[in-house]
Amino acid sequence: MIFLTIEQNYQQMGLSPVLVKVIDFLKENSLALKSKEIGVYELEGKDIFYQVIETETEEIQRRNAESHKEYLDVQFVVIGEEFIGITPWKNSYKVQNVDVNRDLWLYESVENEGYIHAVEGCVSIFYPEDIHKPQIAVNGPAFEKKVVVKVKYSLIMQ
C-alpha cells in the first residue's frame, strides 16, 4: 500500500513508471475531475481505466473490507474525505462474496486494521495483498467524490 498526495514529489519516490503516469493523470486533471460525470473511462483499454464515483461515506460497521487480484486500486479523493481501513491479506480471512467480473473480493471481517485519513488530493494505492475498507465516514456520513483507477497488476511487474 502506498499513500501520498498529488502535491508530493512522487516522481522521485521510485514508483513504477506506470504508477507515475497514473498519478500524473490525476494531478493534471484534478480540477476537471470535480465535474466529471459518474462512469467508467478508459485510459489504456482494459489495462488502465478509471471509475468516477459519487457516494456517501458510511459508519465503519456498514463497510466491508475488500481486495482485488488482477488490478491495483489507485484511489483518489476528488471531493470530501474518508477513513480507509487497511490490513495485510491473511489466508485465514473468510471471504463473504466474490465478483470475478469486477475483480472484487469482500471479506466477512478482518483484524488488526490501521486507518488512514484521506482528504482531497490524496492518492491511496492498494496492491492485491492489501485488504482495504474505503469510504468510512470521518464525522458522520457525508458526500464524497472519488476516482478509482484500475491498473492491471501485470503492468507493474514488467
From TrEMBL:
Pfam families: DUF386. It comes from the Bacteria. InterPro entries: NanQ/TabA/YiaL, NanQ/TabA/YiaL_sf. NCBIfam families: YhcH/YjgK/YiaL family protein. This is YhcH/YjgK/YiaL family protein.
